[in-house]
Amino acid sequence: MTARAEELFQQHQDAIYRRTDRMFAVLMGIQYIAGIVAALAISPKTWSGDQGSIHVHVLAAVFLGGLILSLPIALALLLPGRTVTRHVIAIAQMLDSALLIHLTGGRIETHFHVFGSLAFLAFYRDWRVLISASTVVALDHFFRGVYWPQSVYGILSPSPFRWIEHSSWVIFEDIFIALGCRQSIQEMREIAEKRALLEQVVDERAENIAALQKIRTQLKDALEAKEAFISVCGHELKTPLTSLTLQTQLAQRAIKAGNTALLSPDKVSNLVNQTDSQVRRLLRLVEDMLDHSRIQMGKLTLRPENVNFSELVEEVVARYQLQAESAGCSIWLENGVDLVGHWDRFRIEQVVTNLLSNAIKYGTGKPIEIRLTGQDGAALISVRDHGLGISKENHSKIFKQFERVSISNHIAGLGLGLYITKNIVEQHGGEIRVESEPNQGSCFTVTLPLKFQN
Amino acid sequence: MKKKKKKKTALLALVIMIWAGAIAGGLKALGDYANMSGKVGKRLGAWPSASALKRPLDHKPILVLFLHPKCPCSRATVGQLDALMAQTNRKAHVYAMFVQPKGWTENETKGPLWSKAAEIPGVIPILDPEGREAKHFGALTSGHLLAFDGEGGLGFSGGITISRGHMGDNPGLTAAIQFVNSGGAPIQQSKVFGCSLFKTHEKVALRR
Fold this sequence. Notes:
The structure holds 2 protein chains of 2 kinds.
Chain A: H1 3-42, E1 45-48, E2 51-54, H2 56-78, H3 83-103, H4 112-121, H5 128-147, H6 150-153, H7 162-257, H8 265-297, E3 304-308, H9 309-326, E4 331-335, E5 340-344, H10 345-362, E6 368-375, E7 378-384, H11 417-427, E8 431-436, E9 442-449
Helix pairs in contact in A: 1-2, 1-3, 1-7, 2-3, 3-4, 3-5, 4-7, 5-7, 7-8, 8-11, 9-10, 10-11
Chain B: H1 2-34, E1 62-67, H2 74-88, E2 93-100, H3 106-109, H4 112-119, E3 123-129, H5 132-137, E4 144-148, E5 154-158, H6 171-182, H7 200-207
Parallel strand pairs in B: 1-2, 2-3
Antiparallel strand pairs in B: 1-4, 4-5
């Protein structure tokens, strides 16, 4: 029997004990009233000539009957389900039988109260209570047989073993009731085992349903993400393409019209620069999309090599110096250490680029501070701007795909930069965190172990 | 916690013991009451000459049973009388003398016990106003039976129940049956269990 089945069986048994205790409390209340009614009907008064007084049987029904039944009723109400309660009930039931038999003048018919009581005790499905009850019957017959034989056997000199004969009939009934109890307990155990099994199946089903619901939610989210991705991609790709189309049309019209002013070397150079800028932007978007796809499929592979971190950061800063200046931002680089890490150079460069381009984008023309430090075998880079900032509830959002929490709509982007950055950093065994408040700027700090374990 | 539980268990055991002891005492007192026999008047040798009840002269035994009309214990006596009648096959004249206390109407006296006695074949219920006949026969307790032979000699005097209100074989019943069937009884008297036929002060006077 499993622990759960045993627990269910115990619960069932306890419920039966408590219910039967309550039934007996009610039955005993009825018996008490019935005893008084019987005494009043059979022997209301004892007489002395024309003077009548209350018969002792009425007093016995009220007080002795009350005494016999008070304790079992109290226990049934105060300690239901306890072993002592049902045994006291069994004993009291037999004592009440003795009282009722006495009140009815020892009528044979009243003796059936004993057998009826044993049958009622069978509701407990506990054969042990039959022992308590039958012991009372046996002792009652034994002592009466010794001290007052005529009250129970109707004769003055019964055989000394007559009490055994009488008790045997009670035991005869007990045997069949006990067998019934045993069978009932066996069935209760089987029910408990089946119920435990059923509960297990139901739990498993519930778990399966929950898992399916989770998958469904994930699929729905993935579908929504895909839709969002397509929408964002469409929008982001359209902007440089529109710009390219306009520039191409402008060049075509100038060529057709033979407008030399528009085709001067300066103008053409400007046009080519703009076209190059838009193509680079398109390339970056396509790269981001491909990286996103690689991350999603778990195919973002790293090619580690020894990378001088300080040099790498300086190169990126130098590359973005012009863009930063055109955005009105000055870049302050604090680079007092010489750190060499074993990383994927291209990807680490991508991380620094993303952080710096974000700082330029959201920096609102204020200074940008980059600080490089080393700590416990790891390289730390923090990029701080003094721009728009991010509210606390959005700190975790910004590292998710397609999340853009900027209040400024004119800033372009797929919302993949920090998502890709975080994935690259984590693949290198590092971590990224942000400290930021609205309009107070943001500080992104990346920690990268120098010796990366792939 | 364990100590508290032990204390509670001990208290419960004590309550159960007191409860069982009180019940045993109650049942014992009830048994003692059931075994408490009634008083018996002066013993007769033969049919009282002062009796107004005419003794039949057909030489058949005569049984005279005195009853209080409302005595609950005497219901068992009448039941025993029924058993006696069944085992003696109308070999005796049987009179059930119902004492009619002073001030009681005939209807009050002829209650359920009268009807029950009247239903037994061969039993003649007779009213005994103010217990005059009971006084002649020396009967003070309901359920007192006197068995006379055909010549008026007293063969047995006593009760025919085992205790107050309890039916069953007993020496008094056996003696009465044997007296009717064979003319001799193994015992001449037995205890009488039932209500008093007279008030206490009347009883004292009669016993004197």
